[in-house]
Each structure stands twice: as structure tokens, then as C-alpha cells.
Amino acid sequence: MTDHRSVHLWWLALAAGLIPLLTIHLTFAVSVLEGYVQLCVPYWDSCTSISRTGRHGTSYFIFKGTMLPAALLGMLFWWLNGRWLRQLGIHTRGVAWIPWLGLVASFSLAAYTLALGHAGDGFNLIRRIGVVLYFSLSYICQLLISAGLQGHPQWTHTGRKLMNLCLATLGVGILSVILNGVAPEFYSRKDDALEWILAAMINAHALWLALLWRKNRFRMRLWVA
Question: Per the structure, how many domains does the chain have?
């Protein structure tokens, strides 16, 4: 019998992955149309940073109007991931950290978004700290989820695939550090493209989790009667 007091949650994970991904591509397209950014393939041409797509014109309002709700949604998303893993019987020490790390990551995204488009050393510092914490802590959360699933007898294969995605993401990050050290001029020409790739991979992991929530029929009771 279906419990009408509970709701499927996979759509929330889908929104958590899609909203940031769609936003940066929408603001890029609008910035191109309004002449603030040149038309290119940012994943390869490294023609613009993600930040620049949301600094001017209509994109400024689109970026803030979507990324701030996405940050709030992210807080709920990471908290629910902890609940989901515990429902699966995964009670590793790392599971307890996921909601808290996700909370800081989401706050960092909100701070970055609010500071975007404003001049000054203080705003620049907030943006830098915000983007670093958002990417790094989101990655750690994804790593903890992947490791938890990999250690579950029924989810080992899926967890291994998610872990491979995490390793690929780490590989892009390490490549970025290496290029910055051994070929700084080349890195300065390609760092924006690496940022786009990292953002896509981080959000791809969230979209994958949405599919797993749907497959597992992850639900939450709305109220108790």
C-alpha cells in the first residue's frame, strides 16, 4: 500500500544538480547575447570564467536569483544524503560529516554568489574563499557518499562507478595544480576551462545521485498521523 503521507525525493536531488549547471550555461548564453562575453566553447576555449558570466547585465540577476535558492537547496540535499545512507544501513563515521560539510559548502556558494559583481578586495576575497570551499567540500561529501556505497554489499558496483567519477574529478584538480606549477603561462590560458569542467563533474555526481534516489524510491514522511 502506498503511503500518501510521504513524498519521493529524487526530484530534489535532480534540482540540486540541474539548477547550478543550467544557470551557468544560461548566464553564459545571455552574456554572449548582450555582448559581455564572446561566443566560444568555454570547456575548451577557456574564453571566460564562470564568474564573469554572472557579473553584468541581465545575467547578474539571473545568477543571483537562481544560485541563492540553489544554495538553500544544497543544504537540504546534503542533509538528505545522510538520511538516505543511514536508511541503506550505512553508518560509517563519514556519513555523519556529510550534512555539516554540505552546510558549509552551501553557505560558501551563497557567499560567493552575493559577492559576485561587486568590486573591492573584500568582495574578491569572499569570492575566492567561497568558490574554493564550495568545490572542495562538495567534492569531499561526494567522496564520502561514494565510499559509503562502495562498502555496501548491494551497492558496491554503483559505489565504485561513483568513486571513479570522484577520482576523475580529483585528476582534473591535480592537473590544474601541476599546470600552475610547471607551465603557468599555459595554465593561465586554460584555467577557466578547467573550472568549467570541474563544475560539470561536481554537478554530474549530484545528478547521478538523483537517479539512485529514484531507483531506490527514497521517500520521506511529511507528517505523522
Answer: 1
In the three-class reduction of DSSP (H, G, I as helix; E, B as strand; rest coil), residue 115 is classed as helix
At 136-174, the pLDDT tens digits run 999 999 999 999 999 999 999 999 999 999 999 999 999
Position 1 in a domain: no
- Residue at 199 is within a domain: yes
Q: What pairing do the DSSP bridges indicate for beta strands 219-221 and 6-8?
A: antiparallel
**Which secondary-structure segment (H or E) carries 6?**
strand 6-8
- Residue partners of 206: CB distance under 8 A and separation at least 6: 13, 16, 17, 77, 142
Owning domain of residue 17: 6-221
Chain centroid to CA 96: 19
32 found inside a domain: yes
The kind and range of the H/E element at 24 are helix 10-33
Q: Which three cell numbers mark 197?
A: 569542467
Render 171-220 in DSSP notation, one character per residue: HHHHHHHHHHHH-HHHHHHHHHHHHHHHHHHHHHHHHHHHHHHHHHT-EE
- Write out the three cell numbers for 97: 560529516
Output the average pLDDT for the chain.
Answer: 91
Residue for grid cell 571513479 = 164
